[in-house]
Amino acid sequence: MAPRPLPGILDIEPYKGGESALPGFAKPIKLASNENPLGASAAARKAFADASAKLHLYPDGGAAALRRAIGARYGLDPDRLVCGAGSDEIFQFLGRAYLAPGDEIVQSQYAFLVYKLVAQAAGAVVKTAPDRDFTVDVDAMLARVTAKTKIVFLANPNNPTGTYLPFSEVRRLHAGLPEQVLFVIDAAYAEYVRRNDYDSGVSLVSEFDNVLMTRTFSKVHGLAAARLGWAYGPAQVIDVLNRVRGPFNVSTAAQAAGVAAIEDAAFVDASVEHNARELDRLSATIEGLGFKITPSVGNFILAHFGKEKGRTAKDADAFLRSRGLIVRAVAGYGLPDALRISVGATAENDALLAALTDFAKS
After folding, report:
1. CB atoms < 10 A from the CB of 145, how many?
2. What's residue 84's pLDDT?
3. Would you say domain 42-264 falls under CATH 3.40.50.300?
4. Separation between Cα atoms, residue 356 and residue 362, nearest integer Å
């Protein structure tokens, strides 16, 4: 008899990232994974390459230099930071440290799929609160909190909808939680947000003992391949996460690239400016073609399509693929009539809009 996994493991649907290959196209245009179209900063690329001279040495297990650089950039105590192989790994730490079979997590209707995977791996139950107009509904979230709730996940901004909660609503959500519930704010797209009423979560973490904020280097810093993320939290929570993480979980090259990236403010500014300009252009043009979009503050757009034959999201996806364009189908998020489109380079966005124009006419 073959070895048997723990109960519930085979019920997990493995996460599928955005595709990058398309038959018939040597270099398709990939607008499926919310990657930075400007790439990574030259300083980060050089630091990553230079790290190859240390391939024979183990990384710094505590990522001290990286934590100091993050702390200096955001005015945070490095001792209250933990680094991971992407923020995804930090979510895995949370599952190991805080979830047991029968526990519950609460998430929003269109939440990032990894939260559910973390809960399932721990045998925990997922409670999902319906959104209101594709935006997190605070009252619905609070209504699903029970005595079994251990973690409440909030992606702000949210992927794949692109919507966000103003800080007053984030604070109201936290105020309604029992003190023993860990409130996790996933701020992966925080750098892109240009709203006066937005806060990444730093102030809440600084004020309370049950809030953790996660960030990533995969988006605005363009280090998706390096797998690098970090979290800021209460000292006791960071201590717990350090106890369950692997001893050398972040590579030397990723740490070096992260230090260089966090210090390259000019590259971040350029990335944000490009995104703001192209996001506005894409949003206006796609709406002008007659397709509804959900207003986004991230580096992607959720575009909605019809249900009639030839006008569906599946039809649009097939049409775009025939033009060498890969976007993200989001039926797995419960959005079968929508496609998530990443903001690409200017020429890539031109190709996308030309294809959508032809699709609208077809």
Report:
1. 18
2. 98
3. no
4. 10
